[in-house]
Amino acid sequence: MTDLPPSDGSPKACALIVAAGRGTRLGGGIPKQYRDLCGEPVISRTIRAFDTHPAVTEIVVVTHADDRDIFDTCCPSTQTPLRLALGGATRDDSVRAGLAMIEDCDRVLIHDAARPLISRAVIDGVLNALDTHEGAAPALPVTDALWRGEETVEGVADRTNLWRAQTPQGFHLDAIRAAHAAHDGPAADDVAVARALGMKVAITPGSEDNLKLTAPGDFERATAILERVMDIRVGNGFDVHRFGPGNQVWLCGVSVPHDRGLQGHSDADVGLHTVTDAIYGALAEGDIGTHFPPSDPQWKGAESHIFLTHAVDLAASHGFTISNVDLTLMCERPKIGPVAAEMRARLAELLRIETARVSVKATTTERLGFTGREEGIAAMATATLVRK
Questions:
Q1: 363 is in an annotated binding site
Q2: Is 44 annotated as contributing to ligand binding?
Q3: Is 289 annotated to bind ligand?
Q4: Alpha-carbon torsion, ordered 139, 142, 146, 151, to 10 deg
Q5: Which is more confidently placed, 166 or 2?
Q6: Is 365 one of the annotated binding-site residues?
Q7: N or C: where does the chain have the smaller number of CB atoms within 10 Å of the terminal CB?
Q8: Would the pTM count as exceeding 0.70?
């Protein structure tokens, strides 16, 4: 057993996601980790679970050489640096290839790509146990009776101290690298590899929802779990900016020529401000002024994509993805229709979602009120966030 490295209270962890298996026996014509699960590829859900965890600073995905194109199609955009490794002939070979790719972490969480419903609580349990152990892995106690036999019951096995192993299986990086380097032959999992070198591995709480997609009915079960645990948040945003001197206005990150400009402490992009506040609202996290006070001179003239990116990152840190955004701009001029498609594309890029999930439209107030008098532009937005 090796000594544990000292912890500074903020250890960095790499999520090593093993996705090199063929997994075709479930049907569908492609490996199971790339199949659709409630509208999203399995591997996308798995990656996102670790991408949104604050302790995970690297992600390494081990893929099969034949799956690179499909991986590129299924992989979500991530905040966390993500690298690919090519898998080997066995799972052990694939894990070793992934371990070799880790650059700047002292801990690693080795996880099956086919376990897309991994929760933050299970990940936290493993990471917390690594403060005092070389290895840790989640498991569930065996509660059913165990029989031996073929067509008839020939004996009963004692289930005392028996556990059903899950992933992620966490280790101090140097220790598990040494264990894999020394291991020769097959192993049930990485815990078996670690124990072969004498490492002690703590058992942490698993979850019944953290199932591995193996049998045909597992996709139906996973779908039922997602429908049960889905957390949907809706937020609204509203903002107004007055016109002043200028020759353009910034709307949704797009420069629109106009005979006046919008006035504000930042670049006065009323569209981005409104969408940003809608996301903050869905999270119950205040508004732009809460996070970027106008009294702070560093935000004077700031580009508003900074605010929206912060809101999107904050949503991700809480485990939410943005499902859709609907924005309405209220003004007589400039005309929004000719540039609406460009605004949608820029918003989708900043929100990290498909353009089909972003709506940008405009209305006038029939020459009524300050917008009707062309004194400024108002905007309202609704954002829907989903956590599964």
A1: yes
A2: no
A3: yes
A4: -60
A5: 166
A6: yes
A7: N
A8: no
Instruction: Give me the pLDDT at residue 227, please.
Output: 82
CATH match for 13-229 among 3.50.50.60, 1.20.1050.10, 3.90.550.10, 3.40.50.2000: 3.90.550.10
* 52 marked as binding residue: no
pLDDT classification of 382: cutoffs 50, 70, 90: very high
User: Where are the chain's structural domains?
Assistant: 13-229, 231-387
d(CA 18, CA 98): 8
DSSP reduced 3-state for 376: strand
Q: Is 254 labelled as part of a ligand binding site?
A: no
What fold characterizes domain 231-387? Answer: 60s Ribosomal Protein L30; Chain: A; (3.30.1330)
The reply, when asked if residue 265 is annotated as ligand binding, is yes
Between 114-128, 223-237, 259-273, the lowest mean confidence (pLDDT) is in 223-237
Higher-pLDDT residue of 1, 188:
188
Residue 353 is labelled as binding a ligand: no
240 assigned binding-site residue? yes
Same fold for the domain at 13-229 and the one at 231-387? no
